[in-house]
Amino acid sequence: MAKKGSRKGRSVFQAYEALRRKIITLELKPGEYLNEQELAGELAVGRTPLREAVSRLKAENLVVGQPNKSSYVKDLTLKWVRDLFEALVVVEKNANYLAAQRISRSHLERVKQCAVEIDQAIAQKNAWSIASHNYEFHRLIAESSDNELIYQIYQNVRNQSERLGYLAVSGSMTSVTDFDEYYRKISRQHQDLIKCLESRDQARILGVSVEHIKTFRERIIDYLSSSLGQPLDNQYIGGNHSPNEVTVRER
Fold it and tell me: What backbone torsions phi and psi does residue 249 show, to the nearest 5 degrees?
C-alpha cells in the first residue's frame, strides 16, 4: 500500500474517500458492479491507486470480490441489518463502558466538540455532515476505551453501519417534523453519553448506549417498512420475508 504522503498515496486516499462516500450515500448502490475503467476516469486517478482503494474498502467490508476479479458494493439484506444491530449493541456498549473509566480530558473535549458540530449540521439539514460528525463522535468514544482489540472490532462494525446511518438521515429529510423529532432525541442522547463520560458513570452509560442504538434501529425499521410497503417486525427485522432474500434498496 502506498504511503499517504506520496503522490501515489494521495491518489489512493483520494480514490478511497470518493468511493467510500459514494457507497455510504448509496450513489453506488448495494450489489452494484465497480467498473474500474469508468471510476478511474470519473475520479481522475490511475487504475493502480483505484485498485488499492478498492482493496481498502474490501478490508472494511464495504466492497466484496476476489483479487483480480470483479468487485461489487456489498449487498444489504434484512438479515445483514439484523446481524449488524445485534453486533453494534454488543460492541458499542462495551467500548463505551470502558471509555467511561478511561477517557482522557483531551478526548472528552473532542467528543464535546463533535456533538456541537452534529447539532450545527442538523440545523443546516446537511445529511453528509451529520453522518460524518456522528461517525467521529462515536469513533472517539470507542477509541477512548483504550482497548485495541475492541476498537478494531468496533471500527469494522461501525464502518458497515454508515450506509444505514446515512439512510436514517437522508430518509428523514422528507418530513420536517420527523427530522426534528428524531434529532432532538439523538442530540439529547449524545448529551447523556457525554454526562456519563464526564462523571465516569459506567453503570448508566450501558443503558444510555443501548437506548441510543435502539433509537437508530427503530428509525431504520421505519425507513425499511416504508420502502418495502409493509411493516417490519420490531423483534425480527425480517418480517414475513426470508431475511436472506430481501435486499435493502434506497427509495
Answer: -130, 155
